[in-house]
Design goal:
- With 530 residues, the protein is an alpha+beta fold.
- Helices cover 17% and strands 39% of the residues.
- Strands 1, 2, 3, 4, 6, 7, 12, 13, 14, 15, 18 and 19 form a twelve-stranded antiparallel β-sheet that branches. Strands 16, 17, 20, 30 and 31 form a five-stranded antiparallel β-sheet that branches. Strands 22-23-24-28-27 form a five-stranded antiparallel β-sheet, with no helix packed on it.
- A hairpin with a 6-residue loop joins strand 9 and strand 10.
- The relative contact order is 0.09.
- Pfam families: DUF4179.
- Keywords: Membrane, Transmembrane, Transmembrane helix.
- This is DUF4179 domain-containing protein.
Length: 530
């Protein structure tokens, strides 16, 4: 009895016999099966002096025969050649790529960071399902979906431990070491690692930004031999990270041709600006895709400024800006790492130590900056970065927990240290000096590593901050219930010196705007997208 045809077979039959193939059907078939070897009998190869030429002619005959079988013999050849079947059906995506059930649950997926991108990408064929799952020592890694366009690639995964619980960024450390890579077929990197905000759903993601020339096929590969997992000390409750050696190696390919077709990639020329402090910003290019607008730039300090910066200044620099249009009814989009600004949805950074230059890429959320916005103008509002400039103040520790309310005045900051107390640390049993901090800040307070405390002999002590900083007025910030903690500081000390070694200097004295390239048509609108 003849078995009932599957849904895939029905779709294939419709495509092959009930619809007229488009004009480049044969060309597509030839390209797709170029590297597929046809199965044949056990006949020994004929070896002659012209063996190479005969093999080439034989290969051409095999490929031609394969194409002829597809076009004339229907599904017989396709369904008896599993690998060929997979290749040919890929041209009619998504018939052979079955979507994971998790993406059909709209209620659950509504919290997913990339849900909007998913809804926009799916009708355009910008999603693939590689069906990759690796497991070792009870730890599993499964690729659920790959989204791509002419700007970026989002690899959506589920990562679990032996207890079935989700892992927190297990490939984060190996990623820095080149664990997951996106390359061309020759192994050359074609995408840079990027970062995005946390995902409230049960899905994790890895983000890559494509470089200038995207090949038709990219290879996603993981060669990391370990992961890092979150740990917690049962006695102290302190959290940490622990290395686990295991094999999560995998590899799969992604056809990016549709993604390239659905993008407008434009070079920005003669768009550079140098600040008074000697930091140069230069816009490089603008990429519009159905999922947003990506803006690339290079940031380079001059020689004098380099001498004042730490070796990892590029990790700590922050920038904020906004976009304007000629339409007065359009609301402005404020992007950046600053209060009242929206963080970019995707951010990329890559430092070139030889040139002391930072490549920076921002892709704001599609809602904040729709990709069809015309006549865009980029306006820089400010930036901050750590500069090695010292400032200090000595505070007198008076009786009754009072101080002389000495104030640190530096680069527009005014910070006073008022009341103090001593407490015993529950773990170390050491003295812990706590001082209230009150201040109005023009610059970022910085991290505890930017500060140090000294006693009367000049001995240094590490500091910690407790509390927060909120908005005040006119680009200023104000401390909120802020304390500084100094562990092990002598209880009989009469004074303490607070020194700031590095200042996260906030620069708002900038004057730079650039009219960005516009467009005439958008490829995804031609494909029926709004």
């Amino acid at each position: 009895m003849k078995s009932k045809p599957t849904e895939q077979e029905v779709q294939w039959e419709k495509k092959l016999f009930q619809e007229t193939p488009d004009f480049n059907f044969t060309e597509n078939v030839m390209k797709e099966i170029e590297h597929v070897e046809m199965e044949h009998g056990e006949q020994e190869p004929v070896i002659t002096d012209h063996g190479k030429r005969m093999r080439q002619r034989k290969r051409r005959r095999i490929i031609s025969a394969a194409a002829a079988c597809i076009l004339l013999a229907g599904s017989v050849t396709v369904w008896t050649q599993p690998k060929l079947k997979h290749q040919v059906l890929s041209m009619f995506s998504p018939f052979w790529q079955q979507e994971d059930e998790i993406f059909k649950n709209e209620k659950e997926m509504s919290e997913w960071t990339w849900y909007g991108d998913y809804l926009r990408s799916k009708p355009l064929g910008l999603i693939q399902y590689p069906k990759i799952k690796v497991e070792d020592k009870g730890y599993s890694f499964e690729v659920k979906q790959v989204q791509f366009d002419g700007s970026r690639m989002i690899i959506t995964v589920v990562e679990k431990g032996p207890d079935g619980k989700l892992l927190q960024a297990p490939l984060e450390a190996p990623l820095d070491e080149g664990g997951i890579t996106v390359t061309d077929l020759l192994g050359n990197k074609v995408a840079k690692e990027a970062r995005s905000g946390g995902d409230p759903s049960n899905l994790a993601h890895y983000v890559f930004l494509f470089e200038d020339d995207i090949p038709d096929t990219v290879v996603v590969k993981n060669e990391a031999d370990h992961i890092t997992i979150s740990t917690e000390d049962k006695e102290t409750g302190k959290s940490g990270r622990e290395k686990v050696d295991l094999d999560w190696k995998f590899q799969f390919k992604v056809d990016t041709r549709k993604g390239k077709e659905m993008a407008v990639n434009q070079t920005i020329k003669d768009a550079a600006y140098t600040t008074k402090d000697g930091l140069e910003f230069e816009l490089g290019r603008l990429i519009r895709t159905v999922n947003g607008i990506r803006l690339d730039m290079n940031i380079t300090p001059n020689a004098e400024m380099i001498s004042k910066l730490g070796p990892e200044w590029w990790r700590d620099i922050r920038m904020w800006y906004h976009f304007e249009t000629d339409d007065a009814d359009d609301s402005l989009s404020y992007i950046g790492d600053r209060i009242n600004y929206s963080r970019a949805k995707v951010e990329g950074r890559l430092f070139n130590p030889k040139q002391h230059s930072l490549w920076w890429s921002d892709t704001p959320d599609n809602v904040n900056l729709p990709p069809d916005t015309k006549k865009l103008r980029f306006v820089l509002d400010g930036y901050s970065l750590p500069v090695q400039e010292e400032a200090e103040v000595t505070i007198q520790l008076e009786q009754g927990g009072e101080t002389n309310k000495a104030m640190l005045k530096d680069n527009g900051d005014q910070i006073s240290f008022t009341k103090y107390t001593y407490q015993k640390d529950e773990e170390t049993k050491e003295n812990e000096l706590r001082m209230d901090m009150e201040g109005i800040l023009k610059n970022d307070l910085g991290s505890p590593d930017d500060w140090t405390a000294l006693d009367g002999t000049g001995k240094e002590y590490k500091v910690e901050f407790r509390g927060g900083v909120g908005t005040y007025k006119d680009d200023l910030q104000k401390t909120m219930d802020m304390e500084v903690l100094i562990m092990g500081f002598p209880a009989d000390a009469k004074q303490i010196t607070m020194k700031r070694k590095t200042i996260n200097k906030m620069i708002t004295d900038v004057d730079w705007s650039v009219d960005l390239p516009s467009y005439t048509t958008l490829p995804w609108e031609k494909a029926g997208q709004q």
